[in-house]
Amino acid sequence: MNGARFENEVSVFNTKVVEEGEIGNSIASRRKEPYSHTLVAAGNWYIRVLNPIYAPRIAEALDAVVLPPLFPLPDIPDEPRYTDPDALADALDGSVGCAERKPEKGSANVMTCVTEKPGEKPCARLELHGSAAARDDALRQLMSVPELPRFVVTAANWSVQFCDESVGRAAARDLGAAVVDHEGGWPVLDP
């Protein structure tokens, strides 16, 4: 992808020999610890993506889905819920600031903004999710990519990625959210 070299592991099952449940069990075993692999899957096959940053592009090219590792998540509150990114940004603005708001190209549910903590990395990426399962998949996908260190705050139908941990912790406290911190590739959970 863009000249980068990477390896993947492909598993294809003969459905005349292997039952559907066995394929599902194989996929499930690859997503749990201690393996915690990111997989791209469809039908009777899956690919273990060794560099998970490429998983969404591989899935799109093969008309498949990304199955992030099943990293454990903290207890995530059911409230507060937001109806659109601007409402979440307004709440965030009341906590740690959210200026210079920019919708992410191609998504009506994602925006970035600048937080107001002087001297720190002032960034936040806000995202609304269609369901708790979609939120959890998005969080696990983030945690599976150690090249993208982020500090994540989440509740109900939303998540915010912060560049600065102290800003994220303040926002979590003010918004009544859970913290998912995965600096270094493995999550540190702090409900």
Structural commentary:
The chain is built from five helices and eleven strands, in the order E-H-E-E-H-E-H-E-E-E-H-E-E-H-E-E. The protein is α+β, with helices and mostly antiparallel strands and 191 residues long. The strands form two sheets. Strands 5-6-7-9-8-10-11 form a seven-stranded antiparallel β-sheet, sandwiched between helices. Strands 1-3-2-4 form a four-stranded antiparallel β-sheet.
What's the pLDDT, averaged over the residues?
Answer: 84
Order of helices and strands: EHEEHEHEEEHEEHEE
Question: What class would the helix/strand composition place it in?
Answer: alpha+beta
Which spans of ≥5 residues are poorly predicted at pLDDT below 50?
184-191
Strand arrangement within the widest β-sheet reads 5-6-7-9-8-10-11
- Ends: how far apart? 37 Å
Radius of gyration: 18 Å
The 3D shape can be described as elongated
Number of strands: 11
Report strand %.
25-35%
Contiguous helical run count: 5
Largest sheet: 7 strands, antiparallel
Name the helicity range.
Answer: 25-40%
